[in-house]
Amino acid sequence: MRIHTLLSLFFGLLLAAESAAVSEDYDYRTIRDPRKLTDEQSAQAAANYQRYCSLCHGADRQGYVNDHAPSLRSKSLFSSGVPHEVLRPIQYGRDGTPMGGYLDEVGGPLTLDETWDLTYWLFWQADTKRVRITKDLVQGDATRGADLYAENCTECHGVNGEGVTAPALGNPSALSHNSDEFIRYAIREGRDGTPMEAWKDRLTSDEIDGLTAFLRSRAMGWQQSKVVLRDVPMPDQYVINKNGADPEFDLQDGLYVSAADLLVALEEKKRMVLLDTRVTSVWQRVHIEGAVPLPYYVDLDDVVGDLPKDVQIVAYCSCPRAAADDVISRLRSRGFTRTATMYEGIFGWMNMGYPVINGKSE
Questions:
Q1: Which domains does the chain carry?
Q2: For the chain, what is the HEC assignment?
Q3: How far is it, in rounded angstroms, from Cα 230 to Cα 272?
Q4: Largest Cα–Cα distance of the chain, in whole Å?
Q5: Taking a C-beta distance cutoff of 8 angstroms, is the pair 238, 312 a contact?
Q6: Residue-wise pLDDT tens for the chain (362 aa)?
Q7: Which of 46, 225, 271, 292 is an S-S bond match for 244, by CB 3.0 to 4.6 Å?
């Protein structure tokens, strides 16, 4: 009886030690919150959000309005992602996705301080507490993680992590900005208020570590070149093929031109103005030759004087149409009648193999 009691005590202590080790590994303790904004900073950040972010993320930060842009209400996201995992995509975007970089250094409209203030504003709107997320590498079985990803994640995130109805997990810029533990936290805790459920009760800790290790491995071998900013076209360069004939598009719903018809018009050197309505930083990465960057958030009253009313204007974005539709609608309200939106957006254009100009790189 005594031996049995001792053995029970021994195994009880052993299990307690193992439990403590796991608890320590996943002890997401709260830490000091970031600085609060002044009333002026908060008001400016709120205005910047509505101007630059609401088109895709929603006026109330609800997400999934356009481009499967994620919810910016999630307490899980902001408790683990502030500042850097939220700040960096705002500043530099997500290469290969509709999320452009909004920092002025890469062609965006916001200063460094404004990107920080927007990050903190989003945190305070989420009404949560920060948790401690380390920069430590997560050790896991990436091979097992690959199987788990195929079994559980591809429907929303895509076979190659390209994103289907959820964010692209194989995005190299995301993986360069996100720490291992940030990724693991997202898997364990999910993203409240979104379809991303918490997996901590369905996968073991080892399985979550393996899935994290697999996602991290997708960044290996991917290289990103340094982009050299192109000169933005001047108003006298807006009209392409100035001596060409005007195109006669058969517009769907009185608004949309197909990518195929636009390609024919370009090949036939028709006279047009192409407007790229994405954030300028992604125009820098890739655009249709001759396109002028005119982001959806600009004050059109500042630029309409540079746009000709007697030339066909075609706008495109990557939403695939939301930003371009918005710009065209506002142009039409100002008396521009020869206007259209390219229906498929630039991603559709590129998927068809149609030509684009890549950003300069070195």
A1: 39-217 (1.10.760.10), 228-361 (3.40.250.10)
A2: CHHHHHHHHHHHHHHHHHHHHHHHHCCCCECCCCCCCCHHHHHHHHHHHHHHCHHHHCCCCCCCCCCCCCCCCCHHHHHHHCCHHHHHHHHHCCCCCCCCCCEHHHCCCECHHHHHHHHHHHHHHHCCCCECCCCCCCCCCHHHHHHHHHHHCHHHHCCCCCCCCCCCCCCHHHHHHCCHHHHHHHHHHCCCCCCCCCCCCCCCHHHHHHHHHHHHHCCCCCCCCCEECCCCCCHHHCEECCCCCCCCCCCECCCEECHHHHHHHHHCCCCEEEEECCCHHHHHHEECCCCEECCCCCCHHHCHHHCCCCCEEEEECCCCCHHHHHHHHHHHCCCCCCEEEECCHHHHHHHCCCCCEECEEC
A3: 21
A4: 102
A5: no
A6: 444 433 343 334 333 333 333 333 567 889 999 999 999 999 999 999 999 999 999 999 999 898 778 899 999 999 999 998 999 899 988 877 788 889 888 789 999 999 999 999 999 999 999 999 888 888 999 999 999 999 999 999 888 887 788 888 877 777 767 888 999 999 999 999 888 999 999 999 999 999 999 998 886 433 444 556 778 899 999 999 999 999 999 999 999 999 999 999 999 999 999 999 999 888 987 899 999 999 999 999 999 999 999 999 999 998 889 999 999 999 999 999 999 999 999 988 987 889 998 765 44
A7: 271
State the sign of the Cα–Cα–Cα–Cα dihedral 329, 294, 99, 123.
Answer: negative
Both tokens of 65, joined, read 């309005």
Q: Is the pTM of this model over 0.85?
A: no
Which two tokens mark 178?
């996100």
CB 331 within 8 A of CB 292: no
